[in-house]
Design goal:
Blueprint: H1 2-39, E1 52-55, H2 62-75, E2 81-84, H3 89-97, E3 105-109, H4 110-118, E4 131-145, E5 164-165, H5 172-183, H6 188-194, H7 202-211, E6 216-221, H8 245-250, H9 266-271, E7 276-278, H10 282-288, E8 295-299, E9 311-322, H11 329-344, H12 346-352, H13 367-373, H14 382-385, H15 391-406, H16 410-422, H17 424-448, H18 458-470, H19 481-501, H20 504-522, H21 545-558
Parallel strand pairs: 1-2, 1-3, 5-6
Antiparallel strand pairs: 3-9, 4-6, 4-7, 4-9, 8-9
Helix pairs in contact: 1-15, 16-20, 17-18, 17-19, 17-20, 18-19
């Protein structure tokens, strides 16, 4: 009997040690894979390479500021990036496809990249293929109106042929705007007539809007996060055009160079002078988001200080792409190093952008997107965009394995049962509060989910609601009156219910319910008492029949075969 127990105990220990060894090996392997790219940076083949030429956007646009910030960071690590300005995404893709352009990297909108990858125009076969390196951040469609001007629908724009600017010719903004107008019911000819108006820069468009020469313009751009908002860094004025490659080659960002000047955000400058930022109608948003190319989004109330209300709109992503060989090992090493550098210095880049978060830089593609884009990802970016297993999965699997190993030991199981039984009251209290929290978060999703990215899903809303109820954040981001009502009700009700549940009268009822639940689950609620704080069983375990039979037989064998019987009492004889 003892030998079988000893053998069972040895097997359990062996299994535990084997599992712990497997866990250690698994996490070590993940660590090696996660850091393999960083260890190769020092011996990468960058020294003999010609500098990278990065196509961005207009001189006063967001892409050139983003490219300038990336070039600054890369220069500190010995990678020379030459930034040149262009009209935008569409023109950048044309540069990349041309062998004689000399441009190998570009910033483009995700819808323009999607069209190029999956719906290319019929062109010569010698055009260079374009590969995805990474996504950087989200952009949102802005529709800006002149002061004290109102639109009843986007269809009203068809009567303002010379008063509307759709964005720079060759830009991603213009292509996205044309799709928005198509969804609004405008014909191709009407959109073409609206597109005849052209502005040289966003600054010219701003001035014409304030003077009344322009009644509306569209702009697709990123928006700063409220808690990070700051003035963006000033971009040098001597950045050359991508059309003049010989000039671009002579312009190389200097190592450690930083701009001290700060610029005012252009949209905020317009809003401060009574210009209006208006949202897209819900039916337009529904049509634009049907195929998944665009996402339902909103510009929160706190994005710009002079914004009067939140603005429903659509969003898309900014991508860094390249025409370097998709399987080229040297290009892969360069891109891998560049991605590592950008990730390590993400906060510095965000500060130069005026607080715009690079929320997509560290995010791998989801399963559906990875399956769709796997043949278009550059070799050096595959570990970044298409990881076999993310660190989150490694942590979850490791914790689950460690918990399973602990449960192999009976003492750990007993301790777990006792701990749960003792903590049943706070567990029940937290369950009630979490249910209330979930209900309010679901209400915020129903009220704000279509317009406000802070409340798109229940789990995102739960995190945001915690910030509101705790006093970490105000309620300015709400867009709809219903959302503001639910928010204020939550701020009032959650502390009230918590105080009510912890009052003396309710406390006793909740404690009784916890005791009953503990007894129903583990049959230990009655065993844990002040006189038996350890929770050990006060009842003796009832032995099985075979064990009882052995004990009885053993006692009978050890008994005296001739027991001393008491002498008969003659007085009692009859």
């Amino acid at each position: 009997m003892k030998s079988s127990k000893r053998r069972s105990h040895a097997v359990r220990i062996a299994l535990g040690l084997l599992g712990i060894g497997f866990l250690a090996l698994f996490l070590t392997q993940r660590t090696i894979r996660g850091n393999s790219r960083r260890t190769s940076r020092s011996d990468s083949t960058l020294a003999g390479r010609k500098p990278i030429v990065l196509a961005t956007g207009l001189l006063d646009g967001d892409y050139i500021r983003l490219g300038h910030a990336i070039a600054h960071i890369a220069a500190d690590w010995g990678i020379n990036i030459q930034v040149c300005h262009s009209q935008g995404s569409k023109q950048n893709l044309e540069y990349l496809k041309r062998e004689d352009s000399g441009i190998t990297f570009a910033l483009v909108q995700s819808d323009a990249l999607h069209d190029e990858a999956f719906h290319p125009a019929e062109e010569a076969a010698e055009t260079k293929p374009i590969s995805l390196v990474t996504y950087l951040y989200n952009e949102k469609v802005h529709l800006v109106l002149k002061p004290h001007f109102y639109l009843s629908s986007l269809g009203d724009l068809r009567r303002m042929e010379d008063k509307v600017w759709l964005g720079p010719e060759g830009s991603g903004t213009r292509a996205t705007t044309e799709r928005v107008l198509e969804a609004a019911g405008l014909t191709e000819m009407e959109i073409s007539r609206l597109g005849e108006r052209n502005e040289k820069s966003w600054a010219n468009a701003k001035n014409d809007l304030l003077k009344g020469n322009l009644q509306a313009f569209f702009r697709t751009r990123s928006t700063p996060r409220k808690e990070m908002a700051s003035s963006p860094a000033e971009v040098p004025k001597d950045i050359p055009s991508c059309d003049h490659l010989d000039v671009a080659i002579r312009h190389v960002e200097k190592k450690g160079e930083r701009d001290r000047g700060k610029e005012t955000d252009p949209i905020e400058a317009l809003l401060s002078k009574d210009a209006r930022l208006v949202g897209l109608p819900s039916e337009i948003i529904d049509r634009m988001t049907e195929d998944g190319l665009y996402e339902r989004s909103a510009i929160p109330l706190a994005t710009y200080p002079n914004l009067k209300r939140g603005v429903p709109t659509i969003s898309l992503s900014t991508a860094l792409v390249t025409s370097e060989g998709r399987k080229d090992p040297a290009a892969a090493a360069l891109i891998s190093d560049l991605l590592d550098i950008m990730q390590e210095n993400q906060s510095t880049i965000e500060r130069e952008l005026g607080g715009t978060p690079l929320e997509l830089l560290n995010s791998p593609l989801n399963k559906e997107a990875a399956e769709k884009w796997k043949d278009y990802v550059q070799l050096g970016a595959r570990d970044h965009l298409l990881p076999a297993n993310s660190w989150q999965m490694a942590e979850i699997e490791g914790c689950a394995l460690a918990g399973a190993l602990l449960l192999l030991f009976s003492r750990a199981r007993r301790l777990l049962r006792k701990a749960i039984a003792k903590s049943m009251y706070p567990f029940l209290l937290l369950t009630i509060l979490l249910t209330l929290w979930f209900v309010f978060s679901w209400g915020m999703v129903a009220a704000e989910g279509q317009f406000n990215p802070d409340f798109q899903t229940v789990f995102i809303a739960m995190r945001k609601m915690l910030a509101y109820v705790s006093g970490w954040s105000g309620g300015r981001e709400t867009i709809t009156p219903q959302g503001r009502t639910v928010l204020y009700l939550a701020v009032f009700a959650v502390p009230l219910v918590f105080g009510w549940l912890t009052s003396d009268v309710i406390h006793r009822g909740v404690e009784k319910a916890a005791s009953w639940l503990s007894g129903a689950l583990f049959h230990t609620a009655g065993q844990i008492s002040p006189s038996n704080a350890s929770g050990s069983s006060e009842k003796r375990k009832r032995p099985g029949f075979r064990r009882w039979a052995r004990r009885v037989i053993g006692k009978s064998r050890r008994a005296d075969p001739h027991p001393n019987l008491p002498a008969p009492n003659p007085d009692s004889a009859d």
